[in-house]
Amino acid sequence: MTNENKDNLSKVISIEEAGKKIVDGSTIMIGGFGGVGNPPSIIQQIIVNGTNELTVICNDAGFPNIGVGQLVTNKSVRKLIASHIGSNPKAGEQMTEGTLEVVFSPQGTLAERIRAGGVGLGGVLIDIGIGNPKIDGNKEKVTVGDSQYMIETALTADISLVYAKKGDEFGNLIYDTSARNTNPLVAMAGMITIAEVEEIVSVGDLHPEEVVTPGAFVDYIVKSEGVNWSWAWEKM
Amino acid sequence: MVLGMGKDVRQRIAKRAAKEIKGGMIVNLGIGIPTLVADYVKDIPVMFHAENGILGTGPSPEKGRENPNLCNAGGFPITSVKGSSYFDSATAFAIIRKGLLDMTILGALQVSEQGDLANWIVPGKRVPGVGGAIELAEKAKKVVILMNHCDKSGNSKIVHSCTLPLTAEKCVDLVITDMAVFSLNKSNEIVLEEVYQPYTVEEVLKKTDASVRLSKNIIMIS
Description:
The complex is a heterodimer.
Chain A: H1 15-20, E1 27-30, H2 40-49, E2 54-57, H3 68-73, E3 77-82, H4 89-97, E4 101-104, H5 107-118, E5 123-126, E6 141-144, E7 147-153, E8 157-168, E9 173-174, H6 183-189, E10 190-201, E11 220-223
Helix pairs in contact in A: 5-6
Chain B: H1 7-18, E1 26-29, H2 33-36, E2 47-50, E3 54-58, E4 79-86, H3 89-97, E5 103-106, E6 110-112, E7 117-118, H4 133-139, E8 143-146, E9 158-159, E10 174-176, E11 180-184, E12 190-196, H5 201-206, E13 212-221
Parallel strand pairs in B: 1-2, 1-5, 5-8, 6-9, 8-10, 12-13
Antiparallel strand pairs in B: 2-3, 3-4, 6-7, 10-11, 11-12
């Protein structure tokens, strides 16, 4: 945020204004897990704007027509850092063709790398996959006591995009059930964080005890237009 | 998901796996057949853990009553039970990494006779990524594998040594297939414990491409 002397705490902007902050080549981090908790309206705006060459950091590649998967299907993404892409065959195809670079981290390691980026750490020490050629590679090792760990580096992004159930105008956020998933971590890890929320409330309307993400981490709030896709289970 | 397996066989495998779950446990179920296990432990007080950030998942909701935000790690709508909690993904994996899961029940592509697990990638064929499988396999107190005994080409999925990239070494404790049940003992040997009739011990061994130790009393399950 700038140092201008604001006369209120509101960070509310339009979806169009939010979309403009993401430009060709941006590194964006997106909250969500299997599409659940992905911010639908901002993703839609990125597609409308035709923004591409994006680096996307997200738990997974969603589904072809769901959430972050829509960005992959639309070929807006050049590089994806994720824990799996199994639910999105388009991501697999593009990876095989060589048009999409995919870097995998184990799921819990990815969450910790994002958290580390969000809390101002350079990385974390993790033993998951140590010695496993697909995970370990040549990662730097550190011995603490009797245990060996790998250095897993922190992840940050130009822009973090999260989805929350409710946000007040200052950016305090609460989430709905398992749509919380990676969102509170992603909310912390962006240089700029935009929260898409189902409901915007006034400052003071959220009880301090229920706030999950403090507004300090959030730069902009947009009102969601809601999910614009059908879930896989709805078609079964 | 195990393809080409009858519904009754899947149910039988799930029912057998459910016998491993005791009251008070914290258990993580993978996708596919492992998801079915929950149907057989309804009377047991158990907290099911989901990697997306739930402890205490409950059965599927009635049609029309789904909350699209409340899903298991496979993306299917669920409910939550009394005493459940929601949290972020880092906390979900803290529960796993710290060793607080009493059991994880997973699918597999191959299991070696030493208990090595391969369940994430077939080179040149599928490129799904590892997800949370390494954390689960390395850190759960007990790893139970549910899978077809043989792959679609008829090759044994229990092998001397995994040819597919490993998820984790020497992590498997129990394997339940459509033909038999195997345990891994402390010497990292695979032991045939139970056989589903009409299969015989000989048929199971013939279909198993590994050095199998026979339990002193193999149970024949009708």
